[in-house]
Amino acid sequence: MRVLVSDNLGEIGIQMFQEEEGIEVDVKTGLPPEELKSIIGDYDGLVIRSATKVTEDLLEAATRLKVVGRAGIGLDNVDIPAATKRGIVVMNTPGGNVVTTAEHAISLMLALTRNIPRGTSSLKAGQWDKKKLQGREIYNKVLGVVGFGKIGSIVADRARGLRMRVIVYDPYVTPEQIEKAGFESASLEELYQKADYITVHVPKMKETMGLLNKDAFAQMKDGVMVINCARGGIVNEADLYDAITSGKVARAALDVFETEPPGATPLIELEEVICTPHLGASTREAQTNVAVAVADQIIQYLKTGTIINAVNVPSVTGELLKKLSPFLTLGNRMGCLQAQLCNEPLKEVVIEYTGDFQELDMSPVSTEILKGLLTPMIQDEVNSVNAPVIAKERGIKVTETTNAGSEDYLNLMTVRIVTTETTNMVSGAIFGQYEPRVVKINKFRLEMIPEGHSAIIHNLDKPGAIGSIGSTLGNHDINIAQMQVGQDEDGEHNIIFLRTDTPIPDDVVEELRNLPLIKTVTPLEL
Ligand SMILES: NC(=O)c1ccc[n+]([C@@H]2O[C@H](COP(=O)([O-])OP(=O)(O)OC[C@H]3O[C@@H](n4cnc5c(N)ncnc54)[C@H](O)[C@@H]3O)[C@@H](O)[C@H]2O)c1
Ligand SMILES: O=C(O)CC[C@@H](O)C(=O)O
């Protein structure tokens, strides 16, 4: 087995590969994409950090590749669907660098407050700018932490030690959990209004890109300081530039950028901005942790097939995987559907298998359901190994029952979720041998293929409703691939499920919502 290390990896990880019988390792860092493409076909394993871009083009040439291991967390440099399509396992090493990154956020906050970078450069330039560089205390100041996951919760804890008042916003963590950890839970608006410092620790995804933008800055306190140690783009750079030059935001500290490396941008040139070249995870300790973890995971996978911390495959034996495969797909889609239908903190998940399931261990399917449910909140982090652990850590109660005999289906899976606001139920079944279908959403029966760009619409059961939806989509050149109508028992309301060839843009969703007979429109990506 041959492993290529294409980015800088802690020496200990390289030694682990070298010492492993049956594994050969090559270290070739900083290769241009074409050169990497010309040699990738010789390797079974690839170890990366953030520099190597594992694109579809590269993967096409990776004919022997079985596993990509990221020494770190973020996988935004890996085309995961393309790897999955080729049966390549993608793994990361969550946890190894979280303390280090939290410490970097705290360091940046202190450096920003006490003008340390400016003090250093002015002194080195022969100046003694004591008055100009006066700072302030962080004692008793309010730190707003956006994202209370692994890093955000450590930042909050360290800031408490510095005697700051910490307020937290995380829509996927219940206020009780935040309060139990000893912090004040806040809405995003409250956090903007109260915080003297705002630090973001959310994953990079559609919902968090540009989270701190013009509108957000307008709601903040005058003189707020902003820290981004998460991912470039979560703080909109153009809007941040305007907010600093207008005096709204006093200063900002950035470790990550919309484009990396960013070059000399007007934002970076502002004296109110301090920055580091994506150094959040760069300590000896973190690099040792992630190097050991990635080497161990890749060796185990290549030598025994054991899968740890994979983000694109469940951890089951080959034989069981074959039997469960259609249910795994259905479970993942049902979880993903539930997460998009109820976008609130989860309290409970009840999974019921009814029918021909008695002989099977359905726990991998339950894990896939949880993975589908948690992925919209946590992204790269959730995998088939850690989804139940994450659910437990978040105080989500999960129960699984198996019952014989279903009236209407040979096999029926039902997922009921309880959030802080509501209860929602989705049932699904496998048609034929492999075809996943969602057959019930709460009281509405349907037969929906849970895949691709879709929408669920609730409407009044009156003439013209369906026509108005069709014309609106048609006017915007959006083709309907599948449409299903389910009626409730009193016959007054319908649920319409739509699958479209292209995503329905936000403005068209809004137009649909404004149609006279339409009650709600929920766009979905399944
Ligand atoms: N600078 C670096 O070198 C470095 C190193 C490691 C991680 N990171 C980045 O740090 C970030 C946090 O990592 P982590 O390990 O703590 O992740 P995590 O998954 O443990 O936590 C993310 C948290 O964000 C919350 N969240 C999701 N959407 C949200 C939203 N719209 N508003 C508020 N909260 C939301 C989730 O509920 C979760 O609790 C990620 O972007 C990661 O890529 C950067
Ligand atoms: O590898 C690095 O230095 C950055 C890692 C960090 O951004 C991560 O996502 O783990």
Q: What do you see in this structure?
A:
Strands 8-7-6-9-10-11-12 form a seven-stranded parallel beta sheet, sandwiched between helices. The chain has a six-stranded mixed beta sheet with strand order 14-13-15-16-17-18, covered by helices on one side. Strands 2-1-3-4-5 form a five-stranded parallel beta sheet. The longest helix has 24 residues, at 318-341. With 526 residues, the protein is an alpha/beta fold. Helix 7 links the parallel strand 6 (142-146) and strand 7. It is 35% helix and 24% strand. It is built from 18 helices and 22 strands. The radius of gyration is 25 Å and the shape is globular. It has four domains: 1-96 and 283-311, NAD(P)-binding Rossmann-like Domain (Rossmann fold, 3-Layer(aba) Sandwich), CATH 3.40.50; 98-275, NAD(P)-binding Rossmann-like Domain (Rossmann fold); 314-442, 2-Layer Sandwich (60s Ribosomal Protein L30, Chain: A), CATH 3.30.1330.90; 453-526, Alpha-Beta Plaits. The chain has helices at residues 11-19, 33-39, 56-61, 80-85, 98-113, 116-124, 150-161, 175-180, 188-194, 214-219, 237-245, 266-269, 284-304, 318-341, 363-378, 387-393, 465-475, 506-513; strands spanning 2-5, 24-27, 45-48, 67-70, 89-91, 142-146, 165-169, 184-185, 197-200, 224-228, 249-254, 273-275, 346-355, 397-403, 411-419, 423-431, 435-441, 444-448, 453-460, 480-487, 493-500, 518-525. The chain binds nicotinamide-adenine-dinucleotide and (2R)-2-hydroxypentanedioic acid. Nicotinamide-adenine-dinucleotide (NAD) binds at residues 73-74, 97-98, 101, 146-152, 169-173, 201-204, 207-208, 229-231, 255-256, 278, 280-281, 377-378, 381.
